[in-house]
Amino acid sequence: MRAFVAVVEAGALSKAARQLHVSQPALSQTITALERRLGVQLLVRTSTGVRATDAGTTLLGEARAVLARHEQALAALARHTTTGVLRVGIPLELPPELLPSALARLAEAYPETRVQARHLSSVAQVAALRAGELDVGLVRERPPGPDLDAVLVVAEDVGVLLAAELAEKLGSPVRLEDLAGLEWFAFARAGSPAWYDELAAILRSHGLDVGPEVPEEQRLIVELKIPAVSSGGAYAFAPPEWPYPMPDTVRWVPLAGRPIVRRTWAVWPAASHRRDLASFVAALEAHRQD
């Protein structure tokens, strides 16, 4: 019924399939099976999309009522399926609107759930998830293995922070090759190996020296990016919506060709049945789609 409602509201199988995160053939088979089970034709398929038949219009109203009642039942049972606290792992430099939007939706759906946030690297978050110390994490590399589920919630075209005078000289957008001779203000590889290796490979492919690895015990302090690049001898990567104060001595500049995309996944234990967690992840995903 949920698939049928999505198809009618979208007006096309392809659009509904994207919204439901299934393939179009699988969605078509679902609708065909529903029609076969009910013994009536529900949709008329045309070259421009689909529309509901008279029987389909009747089912649409009933299906919406059934689904609404289903959600009410789940909400009523929420206090039996949550622990009251949702422990969330947070990386640095998230888009400023991501968490407030998702937390507002969570508070509306599950007002009794309290959120505890911890700033941790991707590796530390995955370890905490597997140790039962986090309920959901926001990480910069998708972890392998069947024990954790993941969904992409952010994809950002990374730009570069430069001293204002240097940014003026290089112009906008700046080519990665033009950063040759500057020092990369990097982070410790141990915190997010896959993301570090991806960045390093891109830099090397553009003829840039990645420099020595940052010691594992040295934490990346975002506020240090500003003084590091202000002198004009270094550069640092940052997303376009960098959620920190930017002085006049530093500029954010986009990269020519958009060579670097930073992705953030929401990750949680595959065995979890928490409805508030599912609501929080759905809100994160909805923010990306919006």
UniProtKB/TrEMBL annotation:
Question: Which residue numbers delimit the HTH lysR-type domain?
Answer: 1-53
Identify the InterPro entries for this entry: LysR_HTH_N, LysR_subst-bd, WH-like_DNA-bd_sf, WH_DNA-bd_sf
Any matching Pfam family: LysR_substrate
Q: Which UniProt keywords apply?
A: DNA-binding, Transcription, Transcription regulation
What is any one of the record's Gene Ontology cellular component terms?
protein-DNA complex
The molecular function GO annotations come to: DNA binding; DNA-binding transcription factor activity
Annotated family: Belongs to the LysR transcriptional regulatory family.
Q: What is this protein called?
A: DNA-binding transcriptional regulator, LysR family
In which organism is this protein found? Answer: Amycolatopsis pretoriensis
